[in-house]
Hints:
By secondary structure, the chain is of the alpha/beta class. It is built from 17 helices and 14 strands.
Amino acid sequence: MSKSNSTPLPDVIQGGMGIAVSTWQLAKEVSRNGGLGVVSATALDSVIARRLQDGDLSGDIRRAFKDFPNQNIANEVLNFYFVEGGRAPGKPYLDVPKLSLKPSKLTTNLLIISAFTEVWLAKERNDGLIGINALEKIQLATPATIFGAMLAGVDYVLMGAGIPTQIPEMIRYFVDQKPFRLNIDVTDSKSQHFLAFDPASIVADSIVLARPKFLAIISSHALAAYLAKDEKTRPDGFIVEGSTAGGHNAPPRSKDAIGADGQSKFSILDEADLVKVAKTGLPFWLAGGYGTPANLKLAKELGAVGIQVGSLFALADESGFTNEIKSELLQRLNQGTLSIRTDPFASPTGFPFKIVEITGTLSQPENFDERSRNCDLGYLRTPFERPQGGIGYRCPGEPIKTFEFKGGNSENNISSKCLCNALMADIGLGQIRVDGSTELPLVTLGSDLAGANQLSVKYPKGWKAIQVLEYLRGA
Length: 475
Ligand SMILES: Cc1cc2nc3c(=O)[nH]c(=O)nc-3n(C[C@H](O)[C@H](O)[C@H](O)COP(=O)(O)O)c2cc1C
């Protein structure tokens, strides 16, 4: 059960890095050593479905499934995706159904049991704190994912990439096992749309669910004040994330937001006023280049409880990045040749996205040009109302003609990359295409490498999560 109310607030939060860079193994190590270990919820249904198709050789997933409160669902998912001994070589993965406003039972069940499994494994034989990180942009996965994580006793829910006004209330409804309707943003629609979720459809008997704490990931003090002012939207705390953070960044606020080098350009306008954040009276953590002992100290001096750290943990042994990616990153770090850009257009979300420029990935224009665009995972699709009525879904990463046919403005989508497929490839779960090729990765990391540089001097061959914590705490 959740311990977030009885345990002191953690000094270090390990960022929830998608897709499955923040594995349950990484979160567990951080949590066992006094930090908040966070698993990533992004595309977790595909991750679990693909791990099952790879045979679940360690048996971890099936062990967690045995503890899932609805065994019909566990068996249904196993029957669908589990392949004894793993797929035949070269066989493509069976995809999971795409998210929608009217999801199939399998879609919802898979989301729930996947979040349950990742949290359950992180918490197995572990007394520490575990959180789950979800993206507000992927609204259609939110209720089932959070409920699944709560069934496994998740201690914290963290959410960024949007304005998470509905989540505190949704969590309260789920504690009481009451049905909840999440309002869904539908482009070009004048009517209200919602995704209904009823906990009773999953667990018939009443069970005790503890309320996890909710942390909103924000980049502006105005948003902190807005969320804090109403009980309905008030989180339990904030992660204040700056523009050097890995993954997505909040769009720059200045008008001339693209520099001569083609990167998103951030300014003083993008820095949150921490005095105003503190005025909300809620605890907060600082993220984005704070992963050094000096910056942990500085964060506390600035009124924060501690820091959220991503990149140092993404490079740790327990992260989900493939060994090839990790060793390439570490080698470049040691040589001082690790180059990271903030690309304004790469992400279909429209948010700037940090990209590591390395060979064999979509960061290279020739690899990007060679890939046939398709959208078969679809997590970043957004719903829109068709002129003739009815709801459609589109993503700037899909084929340009398809996107335009669906009414999408293709002005900026020429260089939109399929993050879903690329990020699955980063963790060794890339899809195999009909021509026998495998989807290429696209790697993200924070652009402030001060901490990583210091650690790479100490541990040139790589480090473990516990060594990151020891380093940050000056042990
Ligand atoms: C590989 C990678 C993936 C990330 N993915 C996510 C994500 O899915 N959701 C999120 O809220 N933050 C994500 N982040 C941001 C981190 O959680 C963290 O806030 C950030 O990296 C902190 O900055 P630092 O990298 O300088 O420590 C990601 C960061 C990295 C390095």
